[in-house]
Amino acid sequence: MGIFAWQDKAICKGFPTKWWFPEQGGKFDVAIFICNQCPIQQKCLDYALKENLAHGIWGGLTESKRRAYKRHIEE
Predict the structure, then answer these.
(1) Percent of the chain having pLDDT more than 90?
(2) Whole-prediction pTM
(3) Which residues pair with 58 in a beta bridge?
(4) DSSP 2-64
């Protein structure tokens, strides 16, 4: 069981973690594709925004896209 119950419903479970945490300049399109199919994508994104997570793909967004999204929703 994941840290949070919603994590157990994530379709990313079982895939290589490095897909969501690529090295700088690495590819992340497979992770985003998987995220976009996930039923808990918004919960994942909400968690990343709440915790100010700076690294990795969360809820289908890169760190820079999460920052932009957060600015947009706070306006």
Answers:
(1) 73
(2) 0.87
(3) 61
(4) -SSGGGGG-TTTTS-GGGTSPPTT---HHHHHHHTT-TTHHHHHHHHHHTT--SS-BTTB-HH
